[in-house]
Amino acid sequence: MRLTVLDISIVVLYLAAMVVIGWVMRKRARKNKESYLLGGKSLPWYMLGLSDASDMFDISGTMWMVALCFVYGMKSIWIPWLWPVFNQVFMMMFISKWVRRSNASTGAEWLVTRFGSSGRGVKSSHNVVVAFALLSCFGFLAYGFVGLGKFMEIFVPWHMVQPYVPFTIAPEYVPHLYGIVFTLFAMFYSILGGMHSIVLGDVIKYAIMIVACISIAVIAMLRLHGPGTQLAVPNGWTNPFFNWHLNLDWSGLVPDANKKIAEDGFGLFGFFFMMMLFKGLFASLAGPAPNYDMQKVLSTRSPKDASKMSGFVSIILLPVRYSMIIGLTVLALLYYNQLDLRTAKGTDFEKILPAAINGFLPVGILGLVLTGLLGAFMGTFSGTLNAAQAYIVNDIYLKYIDPHASTKQVIRANYLVGIVVVAIGVTLGFFAKDVNSVLQWIVGALYGGYIAANMLKWYWWRFNASGFFWGMASGIAAALVFPYIFKNTLPLYSWPLLFLISLAGCFTGTWLTPPTAEPVLKQFYKTVKPWGCWKPIRVKVMAEDPAFLPNKNFKRDMFNVALGITGQCCLTILPMYIVLWLKLPLLITVGMLTVIVLVLKKTWWDKLEN
Hints:
610 residues, two-stranded antiparallel ribbon, 72% helix
């Protein structure tokens, strides 16, 4: 164990600070439900943006992305389109302000804005989005739990701890024990202080992460550009562009990397990319999933602030995160033979991140990085926990059990629900095979069932609550069954069939039931102001209010989205070019970013409205 007293002190100080924040913020959080779950909708957009970026900067995802960067090189920047990462651009340009205009507390409550509070299918649509939200929250909790345990096991080997623990434990459950310990810290401050403590904790953690990530990038540059140093990588590794086939051959360098490419199913990279783009566009048009991201949007002060917050996420997240990713990748490539990545099943590339950190970072920087990544886990965990609490308390407890509960009862319910949710998430973590398996199921399967219904709700006036329910229900059911039918298939490749099943449920449920009540549709159209197939409603709204200005910004929004995605890619690859010091690509990237910023200043920032 390389941790020194200074490194351990930094970690302990951070954990103590999180406990204090939770204790101090508990009074502010207890004011009412909105203060607990949404920070009273009073927090500045840049703090919420930092917090949202912090929630996305998690240990498990970063371990996965470092593994991808090692194996796939510059081409790894495309693989996170599985989420898809560019949904933040759609959010930034138009969807965040649409979501915020509802003034709701959760995604399920938002449905009242679209479908009303009564009528056929409304209750079912509400219940199915709550079920989806909880499934995804539990999935993310298990995903974070698995990654944290694997991460900590390298820094704190069990044989060093065993003499001080009054019980024995099987080696395969050591990561789970570590996961439980740090989960308790995250649970304490997030349950006590609600959104207030989560956001403040995330801002502190992100400040630490900025220092840690830049330090790693600088260390990697100094070691890489020393005399006689050269990266041992296959041809094409430094090229972000690709053909139909991946054409990366690790034979003679790291043969197990070829094995990983085959296991991942990314060999036909052109086809894989097309599938990601196809799914990603629909997923982005569907808007945010009901998790911590949507809760941050609903917590902003205004629709304009919601757009700013979503735009800020990419700017603050990608360059910082990829400074760490490329830095650790370079260190791992330079000193690969010194890393112990072996397991009973072969090389585990997800262990590169903790192994490189533990092996090559100096005293103090090691403690900062470890603290930042622990904070990353705690931030993601607490944000997801807050979202799960919001759905259970707001959309189950207050809706069906005790609609007239006092503020004190609501806060107590949040405390109890938080403990139960953590227990369930940890239990599911025991059954998860690894980080990648949980991730693939969440983004490839479960989210696939979410897309059709949540896309149609924005853009088609005739779509109703019954269509939403049957679209979501059929999609989620297919997502749960498909892993048993398509056992050796990447979930992304079976997604089109899942999408068609969900789409059939949407249309069947919609056409077999009457439209949503006209007053609800008119109020939604006037309040949210979406573009799309709304002509019958638009005509009636304008007949009643000739001064009403409909949304005719489709072309401008799509132009801004195309620019934004290009800019997002530039932000991603910028730190990679800096660390590798590829001068011409770096100059081209900086030039493209400059032009994009100047254009978006006129076509997006100056056009923002509430």
